Amino acid sequence: MNWTKAERYRSLRDVSALEMEVLRTKTAASPWRFGYHIQPPTGLLNDPNGFAYYDGEYHLFYQWFPLGPVHGLKHWYHVSSPDLVHWTDRGVALVPETKEDSHGAYSGSGFVVDDTLHVMYTGNHRTDDWTRHASQIIGVLRDGVIERRNVAIPDIPAGYTEHFRDPKVWEEDGAYYAIVGAQRTDETGCVVLYRSTDLNEWTFLGEVKTELERFGYMWECPDVFELNGRHVLIFSPQGIEPEGHRYHNIYQSGYVTGTLDLETLVFTHESFEELDFGFDFYAPQTTEHDGRRILVGWMGLPEIEYPTDRYGWAHALTLPRELSLEDGVLKQRPVLEMKQLRTNQFADESGTHIEMISPKRYELKLSTFGEDFELELLKTEEESLVIRYEKDTRELTIDRTNAGEPFATEFGTTRTKVIDVTSLHLFVDSSSVECFVNDGDAVATLRVFPSDDEKRIRFVGAEASLVGWKYE
Predict the structure, then answer these.
(1) Which regions of the chain are under pLDDT 50?
(2) Quick one: which of 20, 175, 187, 315 is 20 to 30 A from 457 by CA?
(3) Nearest to residue 457, comparing CAs of 346, 317, 318, 345?
(4) What is the value of pTM for the model shown?
(5) Active site residue 198
(6) How many CB atoms sit inside 10 A of residue 271's CB?
C-alpha cells in the first residue's frame, strides 16, 4: 500500500470503531503474533517510552501509529505490570492534539514527582510547508490518560537543528535534569543537557562533551544513569558505517561508561560499545526500582519492511533486561521473573548430538565447555536458524539466511560477535529470538518469520547440555 501523507497523519480520534475492528481482525490473522512479548493491538509499535515504577507497578508506554505498519502520527500506548512479565493493556494514553504535538507525540521518559507519574516527551509540529519544529512537553498521568502540564522547552538552542528529541529526565541533588538527543547544524550527532528546580523553567546547560565528536549524524534516545559508581550513557547514533563485525544494522544502539561532571558537562569515558549484536534492536530505555536498573528496547528498526506488514502491524518490545556493570562491561541478563512463564520442562539432555521436537515458544539454556558447536532452532526440512561457534576464531555467528521468510537482506543475513562462549540462554517466541551469551556478556535480538511446520532443535558439537522449558 502506498500511504499518503493524509493517511499517515490521521488521528485516532478520526477513526471509527468499525475501522479499528477491521484492523484488529486483520492483525489477529497473523501467524507471527507473540505469546509473551509486548506488541501493538494494530499498526506500528516503536520506541519504548515513559518507563517508570509508580504506584506498585511498572508503567511502560510505546510509540504507536494505530492504522498500519508505517511511521505516521505517533500516539503513546500504555501497558503496566507488577512483575515485568504479566502486562495489562491500559489502552492509548496520549493522543497528539495540541499545536506543539500536532504531527506526533514523540519519545520521552517517565519520572515520579509528588506521588504522580510525570512524563516529558517531544512534540512534533509541522508547518504548512512541512518545516519541522520540536518542543519538549511535560504531562502527568491521571486516570490512565496523560494530561499536558506545560511546554517545558519550547525552542531549539542556537547551533542545533530541529532534530532535537527524546528527553530523559532524572532527579539529582534536588534538581531535575533532562538529557536530549540532538543534531548540530553541521549535521553531526550529540546530546545536550537541561536543568530545572520546578519543572517549569528549564535552563540550557549546554552540550555534553564526549570524545565522540563526529560519530553519526544524529543521536537518538539518550539515557544516563549510575551503576556501580560509574556513569552509563546509552544512545542510538544514526549514520555509523560498518566496521568489521560491528555496526551492520541500519542504525545502532550502544553505550559508553565513565564519569559525567554535571558542572563542566565533560564526560570522560571508555569506548563506545554496542548493546546488542543482533539484527533487530533499537531505541532502548531504562528505569530503576528497588536497586535494579531495567532496560527494554524496541525489537525492530525503522525504514525496514517486515513480513507482518501485510497483516497491518509491525514490531514488539524486547524482554526486560537487568543491567549491571562488572569489570567495565555492561552486563544484560533477562529478569529473573521470566521463570514464572515456565510450564513443563521439555528438554534436559547432554551429549555431542542432541535433537528434539520443540514447542512454539520456549526458553532454552545451552551449556558448553567453550568448544565448537552448531545449534539449529526453528528447524524444518527447509528452514533453520543457525547459531554457530568457532573456538579458534572466537566467532559466534547467528545466521538467519534460511530461518523463514526473508527480509532486510540488504543489511546481511548473519551477525557475528568475537567472544569466548561457554553458555547461551535463549528465549524463543512466535517470531523472535533473544540470545544471552555467557550470563549477560553479550545479547543478540532478532526477528524471524518461520513457516507453520513442526519445528525441531538440533545441537552438534563437543559435549554440552541443553535444558528447556515450554512457555504457554
Answers:
(1) none
(2) 315
(3) 346
(4) 0.97
(5) no
(6) 9
